[in-house]
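General statements about sequence and structure are easier to judge against a single worked case. For one protein, we set the task of working out the structure tokens from the amino acid sequence alone. This step matters because it turns folding into a mapping between discrete strings. The amino acid sequence and the backbone structure tokens for this protein are reproduced below.
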Amino acid sequence: MTEPPVPSAAPRRGRRRAAVALALATSCALATACATDREAPRAEAAARAADGRKGSGTAANALMRPAGSAMTVIAHRGASSAAPENTLVSDEVARRGGARWIENDVQPSRDGVPYVLHDTTVDRTTDGTGPVRGLTAAQLDALDAGSWFSPVYAGARVPTLAAQLEDLRVRGGNLVLEIKGRHSRDEVARIVRLVRDHGMADRVLVQSFDVDALRQTRALAPELPLGLLRATLDPDPVAVAEELGLSAYNPSADELSAHPGVVKDLHAAGVAVMVWTVDSPARWRELDALGADAVITNRPAELTGWNAARPN
């Protein structure tokens, strides 16, 4: 999604926390006890996806939060304030911080392999240069995607979508997958095939700013729930949601604050509202009061804690 970038490096105290988080993530990967942590997210994901797939206008959309419950925490590019964004370690730090949903971006290499990267170039978040679509899979695989953030994460790689899906399948978690920019039908079809091949169709919501990408996804995989990203609200969000068969309409926080009544309208149509990208407790409080169903945040552990402390 197009928004101000996450911080280019963690503060010193944040880096110490990041080192601790990395140690926890590593120990989790090695410990069989992590299997227990996976069961609840999987059960929740299956229930959410089963209802979310029904699209707009349904009486039951499990992406919508029940009255009195907390907003769903969606980790923006993983725990991107504590680890290098769009890497498997960032996803793991987010999980260990309590996030059951990860938001990441996908776009293809020159030879058509879907990779998890936000920017159109690799310059900001790796030690390489050049457009993602101009580099081969072998070239992307060779990049260091961690050192720019902190020496603690030296050697972290740009994951393929296949690697991320398998990591989520094994370790637990659900994916809000943004199709980044314009994609051909064949490129969307490859994304859909990977989701299905990894047995993740009941744990993935596909979102995009690009309406054509959503239409292609719906035609190819009607079982996948869809979310439309918007920097500016449509004149009639409900009509757009119904036309596209959306399970979620995902506006920026500023747009939702400026048009708070849209939450009620979308909920009446059976459409969830997932807001991006909010890191401030004051804004979380505002969105909670407005009835937002989920918040995409760079600080998933903090939002998880804030949710736990909020009055019921």
About this structure: Confidence is low (pLDDT under 50) at residues 7-59. DSSP finds twelve helices and nine strands in the chain. Residues 174 and 203 are 5 Å apart (CA to CA).
